[in-house]
Amino acid sequence: MTRRPRIPVPEDFTAPSHSSLVAARLGLWLGVAFGLCFVTGVLSHYIQHPPGWFTWPSRPVNLYRITQGTHVLSGIAAIPLLLAKLWSVYPRLFARPPVRHPIRLSAHALERISVLVLVCAAFFELVTGLFNVAQSYPWGFFFPAAHYAVAWLLAGGVLLHIAVKLPIVRAALNTPLRRDDRDSSGRRAFLRTAAGVAGVAVLATAGVTVPWLRRVSPLAWRSATGPQGVPINRTAAAAHITVPPDWRLEIVWTGGRNVFSLAELAALPQRTANLPIACVEGWSASADWTGVPVVDLLRLVGAPTDRAVRISSLETHGLYATSTLPATHVGDLLTLLALRINGEELSPDHGYPCRLIAPSRPGVLQTKWLARLEVLR
C-alpha cells in the first residue's frame, strides 16, 4: 500500500536562515527601506498633485533630486531584502490553523490575511516601480494613481503585520546572534549576504542620481548622455511640437496681458544657474541654464509676483501640457524661463524656444515648449 506523503510542518525546516532571529532582523531592515520609500513617494505625489495645505520649498535646489533618488534607491534595496525575508519565513506557511480554538483560529486567519496583503502590495509596488524607471507600462491602469493607492495599502499591511508579530519580533531582536555554534554562523552569513546583495544593487544603480557614482553604476538607466549633454524623457517629435515662425510667449493676469518674441526675451537681462533635472524615475542630471527669471518678467509687465502661475505648453495634449508653478517658486530668482543650456540655444528636445526650469521640482513639471503664463488669482 502506497503511503501518502506527509505534509511538512515548520519544525521540519531546520536551516539557520529560517530562524526567527534572522526574520526579525530582515524585517527591521526591510521596514526601514519601505519606510523611506513610502515617505519620499508620498512627498513626490503631493508635489505633483498638491492638496491645499501642502507646500514644497524651492531651496535647496537639489532637494527633490535627493528625495526622489532616495525613493527609487530604497525601493531597489527592498527587492533583495524582501526575497530574503520571504525565504526566511516561508516555512510558516505550513503552520496548521488551530481549528479547535476559535479565538486562536481568528488570530491565525488575521495573520494570514495581513501577510497576503503585505506580500501582494509589496510585489506590486516593487515590480511596477521597476517598470516605471524603465518607462515601460504594459498595463491598462494609470501608474501614478495606482502606485500611490497601493502604497497606502502596503503601509497598512506593514503596520498590521507588526501589531500581530510584535511579541515575537521584540523577543527575537533582543536575542543576540551568538558566535559559538554552527547555527549562529549560518544566520550571520545569511544576513551578511542579504545586506551585501542589497548594497550591490544600490551601488549598481545609484549613478542615476549621484553623479560621482556613475562610473561604478553599470545598471544606471540614465547617464549624462543626451541632447546637449542632458538626458530627456520626451522628444519634440513624440510631443508633435511645431514651433510657429511668429512664436510669442503670452503673459496673462487679472487686468493685463503682454507678449514677448524670442528676440525680446533674449534681449532682457539674463541669469545663469546650475540646476538639476530630477525625474520621477529617479534619474537626475545638472546643467547650466540661462534665461529670464520668472519673477523679473512678471515685475517688468506689472503682473503680481506673489501668486501661483499656470504654465502652458505648445504641446496641447497629455497630462503635463500644463503645470502650476507655486508662489514660492515664482518668487525664486532661480526659477527661469530658460533659453539656453550649457551655453547653447535650447535644442527642440530640450524645449526650444523657451522652457521652464525651477529649483527642487520634478522633471515632469519643468514644462517645455512654453506658450503661455497665466497668473492665477
Short description, anyone?
With 377 residues, the chain is an alpha+beta fold. It has helices at 20-48, 63-89, 102-133, 143-173, 182-205, 262-267, 294-301, 327-330; strands spanning 249-253, 256-260, 271-278, 284-293, 309-313, 322-325, 336-341, 344-345, 355-357, 370-375. GO terms for molecular function: oxidoreductase activity.
Describe the protein's topology:
Blueprint: H1 20-48, H2 63-89, H3 102-133, H4 143-173, H5 182-205, E1 249-253, E2 256-260, H6 262-267, E3 271-278, E4 284-293, H7 294-301, E5 309-313, E6 322-325, H8 327-330, E7 336-341, E8 344-345, E9 355-357, E10 370-375
Parallel strand pairs: 1-10
Antiparallel strand pairs: 1-2, 3-4, 4-7, 5-6, 5-10, 7-8, 7-9
Task: Please supply descriptive tags for the structure shown above.
5-stranded mixed β-sheet, 5-stranded antiparallel β-sheet, Sulfite Oxidase, Chain A, domain 2, 8 helices, 10 strands, OxRdtase_Mopterin-bd_dom, 377 residues, alpha+beta, transmembrane, elongated, oxidoreductase activity, Molybdopterin-dependent oxidoreductase-like protein, Fumarate Reductase Cytochrome B subunit
